[in-house]
Every structure is written in structure tokens, then in C-alpha cells.
Amino acid sequence: MDRRFNKIILLMFTVYFVSANIFAQETDKIKGTIGNEKMGKDKIVICVYGTAACMPVNIDTNMTVKFQGKETKLTELPFGLYLEAQIEKDKNGNKVTNLLIDENKTVICFTELNEGQDTVLKKLLTNIKGVESFDLNTDSRQVFIEYNSKIINYKDLENKIKKAGFELE
Fold it and tell me: Is 162 a residue whose pLDDT tops 90?
């Protein structure tokens, strides 16, 4: 009888331990850009670099970051703005716990990158004044770009890429 009781106690402890781990919070750091999907007042979408995926995340509606010299709510940040975020995963989904933005970086996502287009894109980016460096990820159909926002802004950069025949997401 004691042996069965000990097994039941062990089984209950194991179930409790596994359940606690499932609902424990995990934290990940992600890099990407703010997506153009509007999710409401308490969510934003982050297009995660290297994954070809966009992730809706919950935000604190009072949380602000310094953007163009002034404190700005996360839901008021523009599409395409580069960010690095701490994301907490819990039973309620993903939530931003810390966020840094950089107005001189972006990640641009393409609907497709056919064979040979990578060479065209590299040449194009090399020749755009203000583009300082870039990293093309053909697997995720994304390019990470560092640029001087005093020379070229995000919208002009995007327009030059579109004008060259690339279709963006």
C-alpha cells in the first residue's frame, strides 16, 4: 500500500512539475521591423528577420520609445521601423517587455526572390547613396539594411527597390 501511495505522490509531483514548466514564461530577443498590419490598441506586428514570419505581440499601451526626438507610443511607430525587442512568451501569447528602435536600419521583406534577383538587388543596394551595408537572407526573402537616414529615408529606399521591379510584402 505504501508503495502505491509513493508512486501516486511521485506521479502527482511529476504532473505538477511538467505543468509548471509549460506555463512558465520564456523570454526571447527578436530583431525585425514593425509590420503594416494594424492589430488594435494593444498589439503590434513584428516582421522577424530571418524567419519570413510576422508575429503579433501584445504591448503595454502606456509604453513609449524615443522616436525622432520625442516619446512615442508603440502603436504610433511607422511601418518598416527597425527594432530589437525582448518578447515574453506565456499562456496569454507574446508580449513586448523591452524595445529598442534604430532609425538607421530596416528589414525589407519580398514576396519572392527568383534566381538571379539576388545579384540585381545587391548591385542596386550597393549603388543607392546612403546605404551603408546590407545582409541579404535569400531563405527568408528578406534584406537587413543599415543606412544613413540623413541621406535617404525609409520610404525613398523602399521606392527605389520597388522601381527596380521587386515586389515587397
Answer: yes
